[in-house]
């Protein structure tokens, strides 16, 4: 779960569903990751500004736009299974933890 810096939007991921809640209007939008993704991915975290979602994939991880599910970047990883993630406060880096206890930081600047 992530709350936007201005408090206007809350993003939650439950199983395969992404839920966007606009608090001022009460509007709710939900989509299923299996519908918008061309490859299977397992959600790990949402960026602090609620713009991006990082998902683990069979080949590494990817970053997509939270509002639309559109891919913003795909990153290969051949190391141990990635199991946890957190974006930096500016959303430009992604810290990833692996099952072997390693910590890896990736530049994920997106347009």
Give the total of beta strands.
Answer: 11
Radius of gyration: 14 Å
* Intertermini distance: 23 Å
In this structure, how is the largest beta sheet organized?
4 strands, antiparallel
CATH class: Mainly Beta
Mean pLDDT over the full residue set = 93
- H and E string: EEEEHEEEEEEE
Low-confidence stretches: none
Tell me what the CATH architecture is. Answer: 6 Propeller
Q: What is the name of the CATH superfamily?
A: TolB, C-terminal domain
Spatial strand arrangement across the major sheet: 1-2-3-4
Q: Number of helical segments?
A: 1
- Number of domains in the coordinates? 1
Fraction of residues in helices?
under 10%
- The quaternary state of the protein chains shown equals single chain
Protein name: WD40 repeat domain-containing protein
Organism: Trichocladium antarcticum
InterPro entries: Quinoprotein_ADH-like_sf (IPR011047), WD40/YVTN_repeat-like_dom_sf (IPR015943)
């Amino acid at each position: 779960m992530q709350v936007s810096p201005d408090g206007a939007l809350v993003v939650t991921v439950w199983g395969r569903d992404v839920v966007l809640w606009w608090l001022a209007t009460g509007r709710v939008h939900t989509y299923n990751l299996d519908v918008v993704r061309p490859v299977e991915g397992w959600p790990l975290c949402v960026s602090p500004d609620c713009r991006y979602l990082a998902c683990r994939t069979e080949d590494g991880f990817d970053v997509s736009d939270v509002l639309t599910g559109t891919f913003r970047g795909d990153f290969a990883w051949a190391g141990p299974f990635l199991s946890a993630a957190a974006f930096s406060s500016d959303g430009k880096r992604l810290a990833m933890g692996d099952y072997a206890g390693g910590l890896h930081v990736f530049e994920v600047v997106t347009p």
